[in-house]
Amino acid sequence: MSSEERSYQEQHRPASDFSSRSEYLDNELKIMKPRRWKLNLPGRDFRFEWEDLVPALAGTIGIIAMYSAVMMSWADGLTQAWDHVELGKEFAIEVARVEMLIPALLFCILASGFFNPRANLAGNHGPMIPLIGTIALAGAHPLALAILLGVFGLLLSYFKGGSKLVNLTGEGVAGGLLVFLGFTGAMSQIGDIQSWATSLETADAAKGSMGYIGLVVLAVNIVLYAFLARIGKRWLAIPACAAAGLAIALALGAGFDLTFETEMGLPNLNPVYWWGSTDQGWMLGLPNFQHFLASLPFAILAVAMWSPDFLGHRIFQELNYPRGAKNVLMDVDDTMTTCSLRQIVGTAVGGGNITSSWGTYMIPAAIAKRPIPAGGILLGSLCIIVAILGFPMDVAVWPPVMRIALLVGVFLPLLEAGMQMVRDTKDSQSAGICIFAAAVTNPVLAWALTMLLDNNGLIGDKERAKTLSIFDRIIIPASVLIICLVAMLSVGMLEGQYGIQSLL
């Protein structure tokens, strides 16, 4: 019987049979045969390994930070946009806890853990966070936005649009996109750490200037990250560096900035409380037609931004997994399905997250050479525990923990992966133009534009263009570019544009 006909359970061998831990993990990835939308069981279809704790911890830290940022942005934006709405930090924390309970159970543990381990976990759409204030001021409704985004995502998934776009993105374009996202994200986190450290000067005047704390935290973590990379343990970067950031900041006297305000318990899990009236929960009531109309361009934009996001996570698996591990690579279309359903369900029960493929889980999981299911189950369990306990959320969003975790767990690996993909002159040309276009406009529009140019041989590999049909060369890339451009113009996302809402 060939290896393709034998089950995972039949082919599994204990770690003691291999000369190194890395070889054992490589073999596990090669022999796994996840069942798509069928029950996958521990032992029969996958196993839990201690390496699964790393992406689970990393994803938990990352999602607490992201959810908190999203909910505070909604609270600030809606308070400005609506006369009768007044939302603050307490509201934001409660909504974040709702997002960490029900969606974690349904979509981390059940969907990606047990029923489709090739669908990456549905996390947070980071690039949309800066737009949430604009979304609220435009008159959009979080529930209307979620329904539209979910419907558009399901349609794209049904017609296999996500995987098609991933396959049409050349290596040079993908590499340039990852380099830009990694570099700009890293600089942003470094700036945030320095801003936090500088602000400590006014927190306790008797201690004088404390701006040096940020430099010490960054310097120690640079050395620690380099050491982990040198010994082949880079997958430990998020928990190790986040713990180091916490310890150093406390040791240098920044502890007065860390306060525990979130109490233990369950948030209100009744959807009627959150959406049933204008005097409780979100204080918005159910959405009407105008809310859907105002939410439409933002929903289109969010779904258009999914493909490059998913692409980066899939590439990270391909770069770190061994050859022959195709069965465990994330399925882009199935991930879109779970993200779409999670978007609708998560918001319907009272949440406010804008979802996408979970990068702070997938990137460290790929580095640790682990497939999706076991870590996803652990991550979902951790999210539920943290949401109930409350106080770990205060630690995870503290700048020397949160910013360092995002820096070493997401943005530096993205930068490294992008540089690995730029292998020759043709790739460097496509990558350079993608980076330049992203700096002028934004990463999504740059991806769409350079994909069109690259697929027609105007940049990059001219021979590759000859292998593509006119549908793949022109029709699909041009349509994507037009959709992205129109959506961005309509919401005023491009520099110097007013947006449809301000013109009406």
Describe the structure.
- The chain crosses the membrane at residues 53-74, 135-156, 168-190, 210-228, 235-256, 289-307, 372-391, 397-419, 431-453, 473-494.
- It comes from Photobacterium frigidiphilum.
- Keywords: Membrane, Transmembrane, Transmembrane helix.
- This protein is mainly alpha-helical and 504 residues long.
- It has a domain at 50-259 and 297-421.
- Helix content is 66%, strand content 0%.
- The longest helix is centred in the N-terminal third of the chain and has 29 residues, at 53-81.
- The protein starts with 7 loop residues before the first helix and ends with a helix.
- Mean pLDDT is 87; it is low at 497-504.
Secondary structure layout:
Layout: H1 8-11, H2 21-31, H3 53-81, H4 89-115, H5 132-137, H6 142-158, H7 161-167, H8 171-199, H9 212-230, H10 237-251, H11 271-275, H12 289-304, H13 306-320, H14 332-348, H15 359-367, H16 372-389, H17 391-396, H18 399-421, H19 425-440, H20 443-455, H21 462-466, H22 470-490, H23 500-503
Helix pairs in contact: 3-4, 3-15, 3-16, 3-18, 4-14, 4-16, 6-12, 6-14, 7-13, 8-9, 8-18, 8-19, 8-20, 9-10, 10-18, 12-22, 13-15, 15-18, 19-20, 20-22
Pfam families: DUF3360
InterPro entries: DUF3360
Transmembrane segments: 53-74, 135-156, 168-190, 210-228, 235-256, 289-307, 372-391, 397-419, 431-453, 473-494
Unreliable segments (pLDDT under 50, ≥5 consecutive)?
Answer: 497-504
Please tell me what the overall shape is.
Answer: globular
Please provide the ordered H/E string of secondary-structure elements.
HHHHHHHHHHHHHHHHHHHHHHH
Mean pLDDT: 87
Helix content: 55-70%
Helix tally equals 23
Q: Kindly, what is the distance between the CA atoms of the first and last residues, rounded to a whole number of angstroms?
A: 68 Å
Query: Strand count, sense and closure of the main sheet?
Result: none
Quote the beta fraction.
Answer: under 5%
| Rg computed from alpha carbons, rounded to a whole number of angstroms | 23 Å
- Give the helix/strand class: mainly alpha
Could you give the count of β-strands? 0
Organism: Photobacterium frigidiphilum
Protein name: DUF3360 domain-containing protein
Keywords: Membrane, Transmembrane, Transmembrane helix
InterPro entries: DUF3360 (IPR021794)
